[in-house]
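INFO batch 0412 | record 1 of 1 | parsing
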Amino acid sequence: MAGTKAKGYLLGAVAAATYGMNPLFTLPLYNVGMTADSVLFFRYLFAIPLLAIMIVARGRSFKVSGRQLATLIIMGLVVAFSSLGLFLSYNYMDAGIASTMLFVYPIMVAVIMAAMFRERLSAITIACIALALTGIAMLYKGGGDATLSFTGTMLVMASALSYAIYIVAVNKTGLRNVATLTVTFYVLLFGLSLFAVRLAITGVVQVPPADRWYLWGCVAALAIFPTAISFLCTTAAIQYIGSTPTAILGALEPVTAVFFGVLVFGEVLTVRDIAGLIMIVVAVSGVVASPAIHPRLTRIRKLFPRLRYKGK
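INFO prediction complete | emitting tokens
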């Protein structure tokens, strides 16, 4: 049991870290004029055969029931809409800010789980969410007194809500009984249809310039890291540890953005940035350690039984 939990936390951390690579590989494609629809179309298109090969190589089945297929179609569109909202928001605000704001989705997951499925949030979980949000706020970098774009903000919020719905659905529908590879394959396959339809309407599909081969590397990296690996690990983590812990581990996404900002784009970490990173790491560590911490707190509370009756 402990090994299963540890595997779930590790998968959740990998999922968050790889999903945080979105801006790293997307912005170079935007800089040559590609639109969000074109980038996402190739991102999903490249990831689908990769997953199909993995399914065959590992002896998994493509077979699902009619009800599961219907759920997968809906989830595919939900995930595609989440990706589209985030990528469109990059046109209205800095990618780092958008990726930071996206982290409201763990709160949405916690609220959905508590309101619809009566999941009880422990004091430790609530404290970790608050600490992680504080750390995210410390990493936020605005441009002077500039006001955030309303359109960009709404796109990020829509993306976060869609992602939260997906995380909950994977845990609370028949998809929890389907192999992780199979779920991810169909989610991306049906999600691709959204971008195909949008591109068909505009009649324009943009591709990286032929003389800039490295941009195809960006497309391939988008398909591998924040798509195939991230969605695979997210789905598996949900099945191992549940929706809420997996969502909270998403705090590592902006940490990834900061890491590559320093490593690739030469950004400088301030004391505030470092403080924010420490808060996030502590919050994530608290989520991982909470199963061991909670029994100890319970034992300590039992040493002071009168505290239970205070005010009664």
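INFO post-check: The CA atoms of residues 97 and 198 lie 26 Å apart.
INFO record closed
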